[in-house]
Write a structure and sequence with these properties.
The complex is a heterodimer of chains A (197) and B (290). Chain A is built from 10 helices and no strands. Chain A has 197 residues and is mainly alpha-helical. Chain B is mainly alpha-helical. Chain B has a two-stranded antiparallel ribbon with strand order 1-2. In chain B, strands 3-4 form a two-stranded antiparallel ribbon. Chain B is built from 11 helices and 4 strands. The chains are: A mainly alpha (197), B mainly alpha (290).
Chain lengths: 197, 290
């Protein structure tokens, strides 16, 4: 299981800041209708790098545990900017400032270091290049991009998440986070009983 | 030590203390409550033995009854799959064109398809599949990659510009931003496209000039008659359906910046039977729409 990239950590912090967990859970329960709708039920190991876990217990919106790569980046950007543009009956608030606000990246190394202090296995190199990797992940044609795949694996999404290259916005980080949800390990898909062993 | 004393009104013992002339009754806890507490405590103890409970270093105590929610859900899922197998196996393996004519299968598709569509596809294409800005109308408009059932199922499986290794790939170039066309030429083309889709027709000299531009730059993907090509996934530009709106300024923007829409790949998230059911469902919507 891979760790969160710096951009995803930043996105996760925005998820916390905006209180997304108040309406969205990240926990697929062991019930037939949940597995039918959202995919394999959540395993404990999938939350092992979450400090704190964002399981949640209220679903005004749908569960997000396996949201990663379900919809396109462009859809997420439109939807976050104004949910009614794509889902007319939605009651989710519009988060228009996400596209406007520049993402603060200079302290991302400290965020990774804090995560390491509570047990997430970040390497010194990952911490050192945190800000650079955050930029590279949302700028696939930049020289910084190659380091991201090197340090976090080939399966990492490296795309212009908010549709624009160059400086990062909060939208880049949040969409990068959402598009990763449920994709860090495929243990829930491959072995339904892995956690018992 | 004061003597125990019985209160003359209630008949209960008092605590034996006196505070400024006030004495306190020493009413015993009702027997029923004791019985309840003891039963519940015993039940709790027995339950921790029967059910998964105490954590340990290498796992946890499983309980004597062997209850396991993971196994329970696996079992209900297996039962559900067995129930569905009657039609799911046929959907997954049989020829789609033949299934389209099979009333029994199509009844299943019409009853189970909407839930599947709303949960997975409606976010972009809308609950009635009529599309949204940036997301094509798949209930009415011509399909960009072809509309026979196997092609539609394949599009759902691998997606368009998605992260699937076999994904369909279509990118409209940024003719303005990458300086392949001048601003004036883009305007000419935009006028031309508005005229061939919505009309009215342009003056003949203007039409010919724009048509030249079109043949040199656009026809490779959209076809010489601008009717689109399923080989390149390029849409028909002569009808009134537009993925990104058909007004002049949006068309200019599309030519200037190019377009590269993404449809996610659904293989892995949906089963083969589900993917093929969605293909049949969407095509059924199209035949139902006049």
């Amino acid at each position: 299981m891979r760790v969160y990239t710096p951009l995803e950590v930043a996105g996760r912090n925005i998820y916390l800041r905006e209180g997304c967990y108040a309406c969205h859970s990240q926990m697929i329960r062991t019930l037939r209708d949940e597995v039918d709708r959202y995919g394999p039920y959540s395993l404990a190991v999938e939350s092992s790098y979450d400090h704190p876990q964002l399981w949640g217990s209220k679903r005004t919106g749908p569960d997000l545990a396996r949201l990663g790569n379900k919809y396109s980046d462009a859809w997420h950007v439109t939807h976050m900017n104004n949910p009614r543009d794509v889902v007319p009956e939605s009651v989710m608030p519009a988060y228009r400032w996400l596209l406007r606000d520049q993402l603060k990246t200079e302290d991302l190394g400290d965020h990774l270091r804090a995560m390491r202090a509570v047990g997430v296995p970040y390497t010194d190199e990952q911490i050192q290049f945190a800000a650079q990797d955050a930029y590279g992940q949302a700028n696939p044609d930049s020289p910084e991009a190659s380091g991201v795949a090197e340090r976090y694996g080939e399966a990492t999404n490296i795309r212009t998440f908010d549709g624009r290259t160059g400086p990062l916005t909060d939208m880049d980080a949040l969409v990068a986070y959402l598009q990763m949800l449920g994709t860090l390990t495929d243990v829930a898909h491959t072995s339904e009983t892995a956690e018992v062993e | 030590m004061a003597l125990k004393e019985r209160d003359e009104f209630s008949g209960q013992l008092t605590t034996g203390h006196e505070w400024n002339g006030i004495k306190e009754l020493n009413t015993p806890v009702p027997k029923l409550l004791w019985a309840f507490l003891i039963t519940m405590a015993l039940f709790g103890l027995v339950w921790t033995v029967l059910m998964p409970s105490w954590p340990g270093i290498n796992g946890y105590f499983r309980g004597l009854l062997g209850a396991d929610q993971h196994q329970a859900v696996q079992q209900t899922l297996a039962e559900a799959n067995a129930e569905r197998a009657v039609w799911a196996d046929r959907l997954a393996t049989e020829d789609l064109a033949a299934l389209q004519a099979d009333e029994a299968i199509m009844n299943v598709v019409r009853s189970a398809g909407p839930a599947l569509f709303v949960d997975n596809c409606a976010a972009c294409h809308g609950p009635s599949a009529t599309g949204n800005v940036g997301y094509p109308n798949i209930a009415e408009a011509p399909m960009m990659w072809g509309s026979d059932p196997d092609t539609v199922a394949e599009t759902i499986r691998v997606g368009i510009n998605a992260n699937h290794p076999e994904t369909r790939f279509a990118q409209m170039l940024a003719f303005g931003k990458d300086q392949m066309l001048a601003g004036e030429e883009i305007s000419q083309l935009a006028d031309y496209l508005v005229s061939i889709s919505a009309g009215p027709a342009l003056p003949e000299d203007q039409r010919l000039a724009a048509n030249d531009l079109f043949l040199n730059n656009c026809a490779g993907c959209h076809g010489e008659d601008a009717a689109g090509m399923v080989e390149s996934g390029a849409p028909n530009l002569t009808d009134t359906f537009w993925t990104y709106a058909g007004d002049r300024s949006t068309i200019r923007q599309s030519i200037y910046n190019g377009r590269q829409g993404t449809m996610p790949a659904w293989e892995g998230r949906l089963s083969t039977a589900q993917i093929r059911m969605l293909a049949l469902y969407v095509l059924d919507l199209r035949t139902a729409t006049p």
